[in-house]
Amino acid sequence: MVKDELKARFKIHDQGPTSFLLGVKLERDRQSHTISLSQPAYIEQILETYKIQDCNGADTPMAEKPLLSTKDSPQTEQEKLEMRNVPYRDSLGKLIYLATATRPDISYTVGVLCQFSENPGQAHWLALKRVLRYLRKTTNYKLTYGLKPDSDELFTTHSDADLGGNADNTRSTAGFVMSIGGGAVMWSSRLQRHTSLSSTESEYTTASATGCEMIWMRSFLDEIGYDTASYPSTLFVDNASAIQVAKNPEHQSTMKHVHRSFNWIRERVANNEIRVAHIPGAVNVADIFTKPLGRIKFEQFAKMLGLIPHPHARTQSMR
């Protein structure tokens, strides 16, 4: 056992199975062979802090339209004065911890809201409160591991990028998710540092950045005794052109303006460490990290992330 090996090397005090860690609730279901992570108490605390624990729930954390921009920021001194006492940064900080710990479903929205933390306006504040209303409805969601995975590989990885979705600078939003046991273990949603000229470029550069995370995971799994050297890890991408660029150096002429560092993934593909495969956009779960989605598609992808409602949780009151 791992505990016995640790005891042989270190002086430890065994306090039994972990139930809470840094505000995260851990639950094991021996019968179904699953383990879940959630933060219901943390969410309740946030809602009570801003006195919206009895608010109406929202189906998604962000409306599909209109897109937020700096045009929604205060333009006059009066508008800035009205926002001075609004706890935008404070509440956003709380949501950042939630988005990075157990709730990947709000990562995209939180990332967008962070772009306006210097000068938030009423539209941004209303968008943030929508996230809170979404959390009100989904307080009982648990990030669950042990579900039947979609692949026989140790982990599965999906990446995606929109094209010029940012309303202020036309940069693309890149997202990826890595899952083990049917649940997300690593995820990211962030604005790219450059402006892409095509969807191929935005997807290709995202795939390369995601590949770095995959190599780290392969190294980690190798260190703890798993065999990762005998087969490549699959990266699912929904852009066929980006896949061809990653596999075939002869496509260099069409991507010669892209910084050479992004071509790193080609070497990993050639070395049989990463396999880039196509997946239809309709089932690419990384799409949830690149743009606001409608309810049906959003719920589908949230479930694919491993976010499962607890069947025995208390039904939240709505008004």
UniProtKB/TrEMBL annotation:
Domain of life of the organism encoding this protein: Eukaryota
CDD domains per record: RNase_HI_RT_Ty1
Matching InterPro entries: DNA/RNA_pol_sf (IPR043502)
Protein name: Reverse transcriptase Ty1/copia-type domain-containing protein
Upper taxonomic lineage: Eukaryota, Fungi, Dikarya, Basidiomycota, Agaricomycotina
